[in-house]
Amino acid sequence: MRKVLSLSFLVFISLTFSVFAQQNRELVQEESKTEQKVEQKFALVIGNSAYESSPLKNPVNDARAISQTLSALGFQVILKENINQVEMKLAVREFGGKIKNGGVGLFYFAGHGVQVKGQNYLVPIGATITKEEEVEYEGLDVGFVMAQMDAAKNRMNIVILDACRNNPFARSYRSESNGLASISAPSGTLIAYATAPGSVASDGDGANGLYTQELLFNLKTVGLNIEEVFKRVRISVRQKTQNKQTPWESSSLTGDFYFVNSGEVKPKTANQQIQIPTVDSTAIELAYWNSIKDSNDLDDYDAYLKKYPNGQFVEIARKRTYSAFSNSDEFVKEFMGQRANKFYPLKIQGRNSNGESQFRAFYVPYKQSATFDYGAFINQTEKEFEINDKREKAKGALLIFLQQFVDAKGIVRYQAIWVKD
């Protein structure tokens, strides 16, 4: 009887420990899933379009679309548009500080990119490159980005370079290297290129470049691991370019990553995509413009042109910055044309160019209710100037510009503008 009881007791204990072990395994698995869901994800997204010598249409649009999608997928995103070298380096350093907290880091760049002697450089806005030797001093070395990632020691890093467009400085190069060079991905890193190393990708005809367009589609597809995402992008881009453009990756990933985990969203159909809420970028731009349209500050219009190089109000904004330098006759014609459009010169600059007097102005709108008159007189003698000055001041006008010069006959001449507002 005791043996039977002892055997029964042992069976009971065994079953109890078995159930406990099963529950413990399930608890550990659940904790693992929870940890995976809350893993920190950081992204730095840069789009440079407004290059002086070779502007691009799509990079800023691409950067905004990528930023919006990554934000919806749980990334903390730093978005930068049309920035110079100093601003790019600061942004990369800020990003490097973020990923030191662990998790996944993603760097995306759209714009011009060039290679020199096997090194890849991203081209900032305002870069002045006349020789191949200047690239490393004017551009941003991709190695600088990789160094920040390496120092962070986080779990995984992703680098996406939609920067293989035509080299805008090719004529100043001694070598004939096209596109970007292949980089060996450090451990735990995937580097994705819009096209194969040494090849060139098109900027595209739509709102986004072809590579980014296909990337956006696949990023939102449920249940694809990171390698499958870029594989599908490559297949689609090759098909749509008749094999002229082949996206490329260099990977040394040792872990798994899903932009949209199938455990988070239950797919109803194959290739289901999550819905990313759209933002009306036109409305945002309009609100921005309305906030500055009556400003008398040059910096406001310069900031608009930098933020929206292809915006709805670009032509108006350009007219609100300094006009181009022109000789006195052309300047007065410009001045009169601006007056007809109800603008007046808030600031005027003059210079001497090869013995010729040239002028430019910063025009601002004046209120419809305000009275506005002007007097613009060129090539006046001293006596003519004194008469005109006396008459204009009697009207309550203000002398806003005066230049004195000696003409070819040695006669002192005056050029002046008065404004009454």
What is the secondary structure topology, with strand pairs?
Blueprint: H1 2-37, E1 41-47, H2 59-72, E2 76-81, H3 85-99, E3 104-110, E4 113-116, E5 119-122, H4 135-138, E6 140-141, H5 142-152, E7 156-162, E8 189-193, H6 210-219, H7 226-240, E9 248-251, H8 281-292, H9 298-307, H10 314-319, E10 326-327, H11 328-340, E11 343-353, E12 356-365, E13 373-380, H12 382-394, E14 398-406, E15 412-420
Parallel strand pairs: 1-2, 1-3, 3-7, 7-8
Antiparallel strand pairs: 4-5, 5-6, 8-9, 10-12, 11-12, 13-15, 14-15
Helix pairs in contact: 2-6, 3-5, 6-7
Structural summary, described in words:
- This protein is an alpha/beta fold and 421 residues long.
- The protein contains twelve helices and 15 strands.
- Strands 2-1-3-7-8-9 form a six-stranded mixed β-sheet, with helices on both faces.
- A hairpin with a 5-residue loop joins strand 14 (398-406) and strand 15.
- The chain is elongated.
Beta-strand percent range: 15-25%
Low-confidence stretches: 1-21, 31-36, 171-176
Number of strands: 15
Report the order of strands and helices. HEHEHEEEHEHEEHHEHHHEHEEEHEE
Oligomer: single chain
Class derived from helix and strand content = alpha/beta
Mean pLDDT: 77
* End-to-end C-alpha gap: 116 Å
The main sheet orders its strands as: 2-1-3-7-8-9
Tell me, briefly, the overall form. elongated
**Radius of gyration, Cα only, in angstroms?**
32 Å
**How many helices in DSSP terms?**
12
Largest sheet: 6 strands, mixed
Helix content: 25-40%
